[in-house]
Amino acid sequence: MKKIPISTLKSDVVMLWALVTTSLCIGLLLNQFRDRPLPLAYQSKQDRMMNVVNNLASAKPVVPSTSEAIPEYVGLDEFRAIVEGKKGVVLDARPEIFHRLGHIPGAVSLPREDFEHAYSQHQDLLSDKSALVAVYCSSSSCEDSELVRDALRKLGYTHATVFKGGWSEWTAAGLPEGKNL
Amino acid sequence: MDGSRASGGKKSMREFLSNRWTILVLRIVVGATFIYAGSTKIGNPQAFADSIATFQLLGSQFINLLAMALPPFEILVGVMLLMGWRLRSAAFCAIALAVLFALALGQAIGRGLQVDCGCFGSGEPSVFKTWMSLGRDLLLLVAAVTIYAKGLGWISICGNEH
Question: Is residue B161 part of a domain?
Fold first, then answer.
């Protein structure tokens, strides 16, 4: 490998700096044209969810939950009984595109990333705040179902729970899939 | 005998890496990878910011700025590599990016964090995928270093630029 002169290295660093600055300007400019521009400071998924819940709660006062008899999580057998016996509302917290590609039969899409909009669309379905609501997402490593369940509990849903295994455990068990492409 | 065979192998490897066709292929592979990586993230900076946050490296005031700036940067570097414009500087930027990614992924593995690399759009955090991402990143680094060292701008808009 031939030796690289200092002047070349200097010009490379200058170019790197120029590209970083240009990219930042492009990124900030593009952000201004988005439907929902990113704020300059990052908010975690939990914080964003809390803001949404606070917005919804200020629009409709929340009745504090009195009892939370249902556990925070349900296993495959319990969840399957809920789905097959139509004992409650099943919510899919994954992004809507994944719901379209395949979901648990009877599940309704309530994506974590679009909670506010999707929640207002499903007001009829979610009118009974004491009804059993089971939420799932992709797998045990995703946190979207827990965030949606926590948001629902804060909104007064007393019987909201999570199927932790999610879509991956459901399909691995060879259980039926619903599709709406 | 073995020594001469080894030196012959080294020589042929050096010739292979100096070959203009090899450099062109490396430019296309690295450039296309960066363009693809940038374009999968540029449309959803929020998801990319969530991926960056899983690395637990940056403060909240820097995460969104990086999520906005990095995808255009990758696309610009990729286009420069493909077009051969300021090829050596483009390869230098690619090296800087690959080193940055390797450090971020390495510290995540070292700290036992389950991160979502976010390299080609967002996904599920996973240790296996983090190792895969690190391996892929190191391959990109080797390719970028080769382009930088040889600096052959064959089939470029600026000719044989160094």
Answer: no
Rounded to two decimals, the pTM is 0.73
Residue A125 covered by a domain:
yes
Nearest Cα residue to B126 out of B141, B102, B109, B103: B109
Q: What single string gives the DSSP state of each residue in B48-79? A: HHHHHHTT--S-HHHHHHHHHHHHHHHHHHHH
Write down the residue that tokens 């990143």 correspond to: B137
Co-location of A116 and A144 in the same domain: yes
**Structural domain tally of chain A?**
2
Cα angle B103-B17-B130, degrees, rounded to a multiple of 5:
25
Q: For residue B150, which of B32, B30, B27 has the smallest C-alpha distance? A: B27
Is ipTM over 0.85?
no
Same domain, A107 and A160: yes
Question: To the nearest whole angstrom, how far is the Cα of B2 from the nearest Cα of chain A?
Answer: 24
Q: What is the pLDDT of residues B101-132, one digit of tens each?
A: 999 999 999 998 888 877 887 777 777 888 98
pLDDT(B85) > 70? yes
Residue whose C-alpha is closest to residue A79's, from A129, A18, A25, A137:
A137
> Could you tell me the residue range of the domain that residue A129 belongs to?
45-172
Do A39 and B64 lie within an 8 Å CB cutoff? yes
Chain A partners within 8 Å of B126 (Cβ): 141
Q: Is residue A179 domain-resident?
A: no
Q: What is the mean pLDDT of residues A4-15?
A: 85
Q: Which residue of B lies nearest to A11 if distances are taken between CA atoms?
A: B89
Residue A178 is assigned to a structural domain of this protein? no
3-class DSSP state of A164:
coil
